[in-house]
Design a protein that fits this description.
Layout: H1 31-81, E1 85-90, E2 95-98, H2 100-106, H3 122-125, H4 130-135, H5 143-155, E3 159-167, E4 173-185, E5 188-198, H6 200-214, H7 224-241, E6 244-252, H8 255-262, H9 264-281, E7 287-292, E8 295-303, H10 306-318, E9 324-325, E10 331-332, E11 336-342, H11 349-365, E12 371-373, H12 389-395, E13 405-414, E14 420-431, E15 435-437, H13 443-449, H14 452-474, E16 479-483, H15 486-489, H16 494-505, E17 512-517, H17 518-521, H18 525-537, E18 541-547, H19 554-559, E19 564-567, H20 569-572, H21 579-595, E20 598-601, H22 607-616, E21 620-621, E22 630-631, H23 632-641
Parallel strand pairs: 11-12, 14-16, 16-17, 17-18, 18-19, 19-20, 20-21
Antiparallel strand pairs: 1-2, 1-5, 3-4, 4-5, 6-8, 6-11, 7-8, 9-10, 13-14, 13-21, 13-22, 14-15
Helix pairs in contact: 8-9, 14-16
């Protein structure tokens, strides 16, 4: 085969079939016929050339359609498995897609039709955009979906809303976070895709965290943190307005006995009931808080006088007069001891709380259900239930044998480095009928009936044993201070008894500090001096307590072998603003230093008092500013919780 000169085979572009037709010139063919055949062939070829590209394009479209279907199925599987809701909204306000999670959150019907549109509940159609609702009521997007979609389309970018609300079919609401993104075609938004998530669990968790941060979980009252925050704000406001702030420090009487006898579950129920009654007793705008354990603190704002605070305190006592019926059916009569303190200009929250706490302890001394003012003495007690003296006389005869006496410990802190250097042992009577009683309520009684010596011997032995236990636990010596009465000092065998206790407990004599009040020390100077020298010869430390309250002179102090001089709190309380008291304290410190004795400031309750004592050269301090007397276990926890415990012997050096 060959091609005639000047004739070629047409090329079929576009991937169509290739057809080559060769025309062989034969001897019997005519040129005219050849021309006609050639024309028909060319026309056929042109037809094939025009059809072949259309066939390829059709095949490509079919392939793309299959790919889109595959991607659509894949996208459907992905969106169906998502925990978030996914919704597509057209520019006309139609919902064109909603995945199952979104439908479940909203309580809508299942997906219908190939388009994935929803049969939207009629309740939501009313919330749709008006224009969309008119033409597409069945698929109209509610306002809470349409509004973010419109915003995303208008801004032509994604819009995120972290905290909003969606409405379910039943009319209920749930919190959500959402992101709306525009869908663009040809540069013009044609709709939006909204991804949303139910954040109910997160919101509930946040609310729970907030409650735990500022609310007592047992009683529902404000906790210590919130109370202190409110107190700071109230004091600042009082400075501006000229009004006062009052604090009521309330402690439940005999609460420990309730826990011990009826169990902690009953104790918790009692706390909840008392908290509810306190909430009903205070004024609108005041804050009732559970300060810790069985202690409640009430903050009164906008107080114009101490009488305002007293009236609220009396109402607090009154709401507890009726018995409390517990879930077990048992009735309990609960009482509070309430201490009231009214702020003074420039007073810190710590000072105000200490004042109220001290007043509460004075109320405790009056018996159950008592109210005492910070600024008053015992005669200023507003209301008190005192114990019946004949009953007390009878009950106290065998308190030691019955194990009703408890020892609490108050730390002594070095002013040079603010570290614990000792502890004073203070006895408490846990009376089954009247709860915890302080020494002022029974010491005279014990002295009158002669049981004071046995009581002090018990305290001495237990305190020494406890000091030895702390030494083993913390690996350091801890000075322990124990009080002696005049009757005990004049016992012939007092030195032998002290020596025996030290031997039986294994405590080093230098760790024991025996305290005598100024009155006791001067009761019989000749006898006292002899006994004290014998005790000093054992290596025991000796302290004169409440110095300055009796009739002693500095000369008597120099004649007795005291290692420690404890400055009475009546001088400490005025040391920062009374020049006379400051001068007396300064003189006592100077004399003690000359004698080689250590000085202890008693009853420290504020930062200003602490700073003044430090400036005057006082060695050690104790008082509510650091801690009130604590039971043995609580005192041990305080030592354990210290970041850097340094327990050193009180008086091991004369300046420590």
């Amino acid at each position: 085969m060959y091609l005639p000169a000047g004739e070629g085979v047409p090329e079929l572009s576009g991937g169509g079939a290739f057809l080559a037709v060769f025309w062989r010139r034969r001897g019997h063919g005519s040129a005219r016929r050849a021309g006609k055949d050639r024309s028909r062939l060319r026309a056929r070829l042109e037809t094939l050339v025009s059809v072949a590209p259309d066939a390829d394009r059709y095949a490509e479209l079919e392939r793309q359609k299959d790919e889109l279907e595959r991607q659509k199925d894949e996208l459907s599987v992905i969106t169906s498995s998502l925990g978030e809701g996914v919704c597509a909204v057209s520019e006309r306000g139609e919902i064109t897609f909603m995945n199952p999670s979104g439908a479940d959150m909203l309580g809508w019907d299942s997906l219908s039709g190939e388009s994935g549109a929803l049969a939207v509940h009629a309740a939501h159609a009313a919330h749709a955009a008006p224009a969309a609702h008119a033409a597409h009521a069945a698929h109209a997007a509610p306002a809470f979906l349409m509004e973010p979609a419109k915003r995303a389309m208008a801004l032509r970018r994604s819009v995120t809303i972290h905290d909003t609300r969606f409405t379910r079919v039943d009319g209920s609401h749930f919190p959500t976070t959402l992101t709306a993104s525009p869908v663009t075609g040809g540069g013009v938004p044609s709709g939006a895709v909204i991804v949303f998530r139910d954040i109910s669990e997160r919101k509930a968790f946040e609310e729970q965290l907030a409650r735990h941060a500022f609310q007592d979980p047992l009683t529902g009252l404000a906790n210590r943190r919130l109370l202190l925050d409110h107190l700071d704000h109230a004091l600042s406001q009082a400075e501006r307005t000229g009004n006062h702030v009052a604090v009521l420090f309330c402690d439940i009487d005999r609460f420990k006995a309730v826990n011990d006898e009826l169990g902690h579950q009953v104790g918790d129920e009692l706390l909840r009931v008392i908290a509810e009654r306190l909430r009903g007793a205070i004024r609108a705008g005041d804050t009732a808080s559970r300060f810790g354990g069985d202690e409640f603190v009430i903050l009164l704002e906008g107080v114009t006088s101490a009488e305002d605070a007293d009236r609220v305190a009396e109402e607090v006592l009154a709401v507890l007069q009726d018995p409390i019926t517990l879930s077990t059916g048992r009735e309990v009569v609960a009482t509070l001891s309430v201490g009231v303190a009214v702020s003074e200009r420039g007073q810190s929250r710590q000072d105000l709380l200490h004042d109220a706490d001290q007043a509460m302890y004075r109320a405790k001394e009056q018996g159950r259900g008592a109210l005492a003012s910070r600024s008053g003495t015992d005669s200023a007690v507003v209301a008190a239930r005192s114990l019946n003296r004949p009953n007390r006389d009878t009950a106290f005869q065998h308190v030691v044998d019955r194990g009703e006496m408890e020892i609490h410990y108050q730390p002594l802190v070095s002013l040079s480095d603010r570290r614990i250097v000792g502890a004073e042992a203070l006895v408490r009577w846990n009376d089954p009928d009247h709860g915890i009683l302080l020494p002022g309520q029974f010491i005279r009684l014990a002295e009158r009936n002669g049981s004071i010596v046995g009581l002090e011997q018990m305290v001495l032995e237990q305190a020494c044993r406890q000091a030895k236990t702390w030494q083993r636990e913390f690996g350091a010596t801890l000075g322990i201070c124990v009080n002696l009465s005049a009757l005990h000092v004049q016992q012939r065998n007092v030195t032998d008894h002290v020596a025996g206790v030290l031997e039986s407990t294994g405590l080093a004599p230098s760790q024991l500090c025996l305290e005598l009040s100024e009155t006791v020390a001067l009761h019989d100077v000749v006898v006292t001096s002899s006994v004290l020298r014998e005790l000093h010869a054992l290596g025991v430390r000796l302290a004169i307590d409440d110095f300055g309250t009796g009739h002693s002179s500095f000369g008597y102090l120099a004649r007795l072998p005291f290692d420690v001089v404890k400055i009475d709190q009546s001088f400490v309380h005025g040391v920062h603003d009374d020049p006379v008291k400051s001068a007396i304290v300064s003189a006592v410190i100077a004399l003690a230093r000359t004698m080689g004795a250590c000085t202890v400031g008693e009853g420290v309750e504020s930062q200003t008092q602490l700073e003044e004592l430090t400036g005057l050269g006082c060695d050690v301090a104790q008082g509510f500013y650091f801690a009130r007397p604590l039971p043995t276990a609580a005192f041990g926890k305080m030592l354990t919780a210290s970041a850097e415990v340094d327990l050193r012997l009180l008086g091991s050096t004369k300046t420590a």
